[in-house]
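New to this. Please check this protein:
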Amino acid sequence: MLDGGSYGAVAARLEPPPQVVAERNLAFEDTAEGAVVVRDADSGVLVAEFPAGEQGFIRSTLRGLARTRRSHGAGAEVPFRLERRANGQLLLIDPVTDQAIDLWAFGHANAEVFFDFLPTGFTEPQAAASGTNTVAQEATRRETP
């Protein structure tokens, strides 16, 4: 029994999410040749282009997000948001479905491809620079020789 006779009473402590230190709205397009084109959704500037058969992680990630969007009756009109958080998280967020993918959970090399989509001139936040990492980053670091 805990103070007053209730069993298993646990107070939930919710903390605000870590601050966003860099972000970019991204639009992904498939070309007739099978390439994937990545654009800054706000400016239309080309961020990256991957020929057919390259970057399977990007393709599979986007396929999963698009499938979820279709199940919600939505299409590609709304861009995805890439966020780098002060705690080192790198998230790809679908504002239509509220789905968020922690990209570090899929390994360093896969996350780095998305990391490169952040605006130029971005520098690592203090927490990440000081060695504070997410659980996924720590797991990735142990896997990498």
User: Anything to note?
Assistant: The first helix runs from residue 56 to 71. The longest strand covers residues 20-30. Residues 22-143 form one domain. The chain has one domain: 22-143.
